[in-house]
Amino acid sequence: MAYPGYGEPNAEAPQMTADPLWPYYSRCAGQDGQIDVSELHRALAAANLDGTMDFSEEACRKFIAMLDRDYSGKMGFSEFKELWNAVNSWRKSFSKFDRNRSGTIDASELKSALQELGYSLPDNLITLAIRKFNMKGKSTFPFSDFVSCVLSLRALTDQFRSRDTARNGTAEFNYDDFIQVLMSS
Asked: What is the distance between the alpha carbons of residues 95 and 18, in angstroms, rounded to a whole number?
């Protein structure tokens, strides 16, 4: 019996090379064929053609944590492609609500954009999100801060859903669970 990577050709390789994103991924990936935090940061910075994808290394860590199915601390091609598609989806949502085309969204636009993504937050939580995730301390949100907010909401929602076994909008947390949820978001 052959094991993947030990004498058996990778069955995904022909499919990956046909993907239009594969050449970009393969240029960005390290010697191991995976993308780590620094490589992802450089890859997203290089793809930042319109100046909206100014992601910090911390955001890149969150991207990897969100999609790292094999717990390698890195992204394989399928994980990178999933991230690429998610970022493009978030960008479309952001652009739709950036009505004045300023490259930022205000509180009401943020609320609408988050609603489109499935997060219905009351105004007090929108205000809190702006204070927590807006890295420049302004009343408007650039795209990179919007993505950081969405990543945290996604992580918190996933953690909540895993504990809301009755699917009734309530969950029970002990202190350790609560800290784990906060630390993982």
From this structure: 30
